[in-house]
Design a protein that fits this description.
Length: 228
């Protein structure tokens, strides 16, 4: 990463949480210091990506043709492509495949020349599954997960922001009781998060907790997604 002008090219992976913690921190540091037009371009692509994921998670798609994987990979490797348009269009197509049919996964097309991230490995896993549920305060939560990869990608669509001083907290429900899977305070129209170390958990649940999270659920459960 040699200049601020390449920041918009990193927005797709950033929006899908397909970057490491160090990469995310570096991107956010550069974004804070970038010229306004570069920062605006980055945020615009993040918004488009999340809107595409929101549409995909609410879509019942048909089984994709067998040629889709080869076509998508060919597009992603074309050196003459328009980066913004191919990422936006291909993401919407691939995400719909994952949500509806357990297809090859959006991640394979996002960063084809680097080692796959956890999110990419989940979305391209042979055992990837998808579960969607309604949130008590409105909106939906869609979880795409792989037992083989022990991780999942969460997409929350149109969720109500938590009250001041509160956050959404995720819980993996196990035989030993609920285990915290992280918190989400900043909620956009479409918000993504990674959930790791699924273990043998039977469900992913959500409660509203004080800022910083709780060691055990204290708030009312706002959603519960059963994991098979």
């Amino acid at each position: 990463m040699t200049s601020d002008s390449d920041l918009p090219d990193l927005a797709t992976a950033y929006a899908l949480d397909a970057v490491s913690d160090a990469e995310r921190a570096d991107i956010e540091h550069r974004l804070a210091e970038a010229p306004a037009e570069v920062a605006d371009a980055f945020r615009a692509e993040v918004r488009v990506v999340r809107e595409a994921m929101a549409r995909a998670s609410a879509t019942v798609a048909v089984t994709p043709p067998a040629s889709l994987r080869q076509q998508a990979l060919a597009v992603s490797r074309d050196p003459h492509r328009d980066s913004f348009r191919w990422r936006t269009g291909l993401l919407a197509t691939a995400a719909a495949v994952v949500v509806a049919a357990g297809g090859f996964g959006a991640g394979l097309a996002l960063r084809p020349l680097t080692a796959p991230t956890t999110a990419e490995q989940v979305l391209s896993a042979g055992d990837v599954r998808t579960v969607t549920g309604q949130l008590a305060a409105g909106g939906t939560a869609t979880f795409m997960y792989s037992r083989d990869e022990r991780s999942g990608v969460l997409v929350m669509n149109n969720a109500a922001p938590p009250p001041p001083g509160m956050v959404y907290q995720m819980w993996l429900m196990t035989d030993q009781g609920p285990e915290s899977a992280g918190t989400m305070g900043a909620i956009a129209p479409s918000t993504t998060a990674m959930v790791r170390d699924l273990g043998d958990s039977s469900a992913l649940a959500f409660t509203m907790e004080p800022d910083g999270g709780s060691t055990q659920p204290t708030g009312e459960m706002v959603a519960r997604l059963s994991l098979t």
